[in-house]
Amino acid sequence: MKKFQKYIILFLTVVLIISLAGCQSRKRPKEPENQQAQKEAEKTKEAPKIPKAINQGEGQEPKLVVYIADEKTNKEMAFEEYLQGVVAGEMKKDWPIEALKAQTILARSFVMEFVDSKGSSKYEGAHISTDIEEAQAWNASEINENIVNAVNSTRGQVLVHDNKYIKAWFHAHAGGRTANAVEGLGYDEGNPPYIESVESPDSKEAPEEDTNWSATFTKGEIIEAVRASGQETGDFDNIEITERGPSGRAYKLQIGQANVLAPAFRVALDSTKMKSTQIKDITVSDGKVTITGTGYGHGVGMSQWGAYQMAKEGKNAEDIINHYFKDVDIVQLWK
C-alpha cells in the first residue's frame, strides 16, 4: 500500500511539473511582443542628428557663430550660452521656472530646426542671428539665476516629431485660443501634424494692451501694406473679413479691389500695432482705419502667457509643451 502511495505521489508530481512547464511555455511568446513594443517606443524617441554646420561630435554641445545685430558683428559662443540670452530676450526673467524651462526647450528646438533646414543665417559667416525678423530675440543683459537654472536643467533637450526637429513656434498671448500654422502664419507648407488649434489659459495678469488692443492707421498706410502683396486696393470705404480660420482669426481680408492674406498684411502694416489677426472689429471713417482685437502674436504654438498661467497652476514644462504641441517627444542631444 505504501509503495502504491509513493507511485501516486510521484505521478502527481510529474503531472504538476509538466503543467507548470506548459504555463511557462504559453507565456513565452508574449515576451518578444513586449520587447517589440519597447523597441517601437524607443524608436519614436530617437534623436535626429545634430546639423553638420555646428556639430562638435556625438553627445557634445554644439558651438554657434551668432550675428549680434546691435553690434553688427559675428561672435562664436557655446550653444547653451547663446540660449540664455534668447530666453532672457523672449520671456520675463522673474517668471515661474517651469514656464522658463518650456520656453528654453522651444528656443533650443527652434535653433536646431533653423540650422538643420536653412544651414546658416542670412548674415554672412553666422549660423544664426539676434535679428528678430530672422530668428529669436536675445538680451544678455537680462540673464539672471532663474534663467540660468532653466537652461541648465533642460540642457541639450529638444522637441522632435517623427524623429525630426519641429517648428517650435511661440507667441506672447493667444487671446484664449491658438491658431494652426496656415491661419496664423500663412504657412504655405500646410499644417504640421503636431500643430492644432487649442484653448489657451492666458493669464489675467497679462497687460491689457495685449489682451485687448486697438490701433488706428491712415488709409495710406493700409494701401502701402496691401501693395506689399503685389495688389492695389483702389479707394475703399470698408474692410471685410472674408474668411476666418479654425481659431476664429481673420485669414483673408477684402480691402477695396484687393483680397489679401491677413497674416502677411499684419506684418506689412505693423505687427506691434496690429497685434494679432484675432480681430473683433474694423471701422473706416474720415480717412482712417481702426482695428480692434485680442491677443498678441501670430497665435501658433505655445502662448507665453498661457505657459505662465499653467506654471502658476503647478504644471511642469512637459505638461505645457504637450498642451500646445501634439505627439512630440523631448529628446536629449547632449549633456
Features:
14 strands, globular, 3-stranded antiparallel β-sheet, disordered N terminus, alpha+beta, 3-stranded mixed β-sheet, 335 residues
Give a short summary of the structure.
The protein is α+β, with helices and mostly antiparallel strands and 335 residues long.
Topology:
Elements: H1 2-27, H2 30-44, E1 63-68, E2 73-78, H3 79-90, H4 97-118, E3 128-129, H5 145-153, E4 157-161, E5 164-165, E6 170-171, H6 181-185, H7 208-211, E7 212-218, H8 219-227, E8 239-244, E9 250-255, E10 258-261, H9 262-269, E11 279-285, E12 288-294, E13 302-303, H10 304-312, H11 317-324, E14 329-332
Parallel strand pairs: 1-3, 6-13
Antiparallel strand pairs: 1-2, 4-5, 4-14, 7-12, 8-9, 9-10, 11-12
Helix pairs in contact: 3-4, 3-5, 4-5, 4-10, 4-11, 8-9, 10-11
